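ugh finaly. both done.
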Amino acid sequence: MLTLLIKRFLPFFLLIPFFTAHAQTDIMVLEKRGHTIITYSAGMGITMKTIYNQWIDGTITALHNDSVFVDGSPFHYKEIGALRVDRKTWHNRGVGVFMMTAGAGVLALGAVNGLYRGDKASTWYTPTSYITAGTLLVAGYLLSIKPNNNFPLGKKYSLQYVKLDFNKKQ
């Protein structure tokens, strides 16, 4: 009896989400020569420069009818002159600081080992330790100072507004 109920009603319960779910209204796609860099949708943070030379930072509250609502203020998507992607994550600056610390650690470890063994100061480091420490220090520094990415819209970058409302006839 239970098996018969499961066979009859399980497909119905599995299909309920498809009938009740609503599609996302619209999205904006930042492209570099036709390749997607980032996709913006409602609820995402955005930092943009308008064609009126104003930088606006906020959250996209809605996207509809070719308009972007940033913290409730509407902008036509063609009023956006540039976009900025802030590098605030641990992956960028934190890894750079960690690599510089590791490079300094390689040099410190060579000195501590040389002192502990009683070696001459000229034999504390080998060419391999110089190369390793130097590479870690330089790469870490370059990662830690990496600036924010600005994407000026025009020749190289473009912003596409994609309407995803399939219910309306166009």
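ok and the 2nd:
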Amino acid sequence: MSRAQLQQIALIAFLLLFALVWTLTRKLPETASLQTPPPVLLPKAVTPPEEKPEATPPAVPLEKETPVARNPFELPKLLKEVWQQKELARERQEQERLEREQESRDSQKAVPEQPPPSLELQGILWTAREPKAIINRQIVSVGDSLPGNVEVTSITKDRVRVSYPGGNIELTLPQKSSGSRSRESEEGTP
């Protein structure tokens, strides 16, 4: 069965139960108990004496009291107080959150922005599994840290991205000019 069919069956069962309870409560008077005493049988010859209605005491006029009708849409006093306390607590929490955000913004403004660190990309050792880069004569991988609170965030075939507290930097390999000799040929290695 699908979820919608189960929901329909549950709704129908609820309505049937509600109808049953409603009809049972409508048939029983509110003052009757569930167990009624057996009726008292009197002999036919004996008739009970007629009761004279007792005289009701004269009505004493009360001070002018106006009947108080309860508003069905108004919350009881205790619930109102609880609700108001919760609202106050929410307002305090929101105020504290706004103050913390303001403090963090102020503290960020108070910290002077750090200048980018001096980094030199000297080479990239590219492999698909684990690329490495040479920065300031140090071999690093993605996630490694360098002096100055610098972290390597990504390495591609032609560039390396690093982050530091003041921002992000993208390092690229220096372009070799066609007229200049390479470093290997300068050192005399073939």
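summary for the 2nd one i guess: The first helix runs from residue 3 to 27.
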